Amino acid sequence: EVQLVESGGGLVQAGGSLRLSCAASGFSFDDYAIGWFRQAPGKEREGVSCISSSEDIIYYEDSVKGRFTIFSDIIKNTVYLQMNSLKPEDTAIYYCAADQDLITLAAGQGDYWGQGTQVTVSS
Questions:
Q1: Which residue ranges of the chain lie beneath pLDDT 70?
Q2: How many Å apart are CA 4 and CA 51, to the nearest integer?
Q3: 29/44 Cα distance (integer angstroms)
């Protein structure tokens, strides 16, 4: 059974940092692109960052460039999102997703999704 489990969310002050984790089971990162998405109250879900299965393609949404970093630990089958210099507008539920096709994943149509973790940034 394929599972994605996010963790690491919480409440942080503006300017602070959080590291989100997405632990995968039931498949190998070697075969799947992994991405982070977020949905704020009253807004549509948006892509934050994606990394290809070979880790040679990495995408960041413009508003997080220079502040967020996506990276993976193949041994732990876990993908991380390091979030620095957090802003109140980063407040959202963050989801990780996986798909064998990076383009499909980046379009928000990944095959597998986690349950989400709440990130709240206070001003």
A1: none
A2: 15
A3: 27
